[in-house]
């Protein structure tokens, strides 16, 4: 992320934080950006960072992200969030903070995944419930949440296209004697193994044919580039909760 910021015209690193007690605290940020020393040390107080920055990019954990959202609102600092695994209660905290500051929140910052979600919504709107929707995702063995935030984002896109509530039609994995598939269900399956950065496939299956839309990420740099693009876009915007569709003008 720091390297992407340091090499993008119009961007300047204002600071960075780690959790208190981390061995990175106190080290020069240039080391992590792959550039010469910047004279900026890794800190452990997010409030100092929010006071120094125009936009803060947050890829942390849900508890930290909600705290950062409140800090953003209090300091009038724009925020870009790529954290996954947020609950509906966490997302309500973001929505409340976004009444005061502009905020981009997306489960996946990849430009390709954003376009995939757009295509999935369009396909779901045009293919009725005779087409069963299944979403399969695979990530590295260390990922702690399932299904991935991106898989959930794809499922929400499909539900929007069908004009239904995802809570009413979601089917998260199957085990044992499950019975026949529910008509109109949106299925999600999670695979974990190796060092897979992120693979996502959306399948529309009916009698006689199958449509498959997918995306594979081979480097985490794609998420960093999308986050930096979002930061440039959100700076100076009116308060509100935006996503990557807004950044790419896909509304």
Strand order of the largest sheet: 5-6-4-7-8
Named at the architecture level, the CATH assignment of the largest domain is 3-Layer(aba) Sandwich
User: What gross morphology would you assign?
Assistant: elongated
How far is it from the N-terminal to the C-terminal residue, by CA? 27 Å
Strand coverage percent: 15-25%
**In CATH's first tier, which class of the largest domain applies?**
Alpha Beta
The CATH homologous superfamily name of the largest domain equals: NAD(P)-binding Rossmann-like Domain
Poorly predicted sequence stretches spanning 5 or more consecutive residues: none
Radius of gyration: 19 Å
Find the structural class using helix and strand composition. Answer: alpha/beta
In CATH, the topology of the largest domain is named Rossmann fold
* Secondary-structure element pattern, one letter each: HHHEHEHEHEHHEEEEHEH
State the domain count: 2
Q: Biggest sheet, in brief?
A: 5 strands, mixed
Number of strands: 9
**Averaging pLDDT over every residue, what do you get?**
94
EC number: 1.17.1.8
Protein name: 4-hydroxy-tetrahydrodipicolinate reductase
Subcellular location: Cytoplasm
Main location: cytoplasm
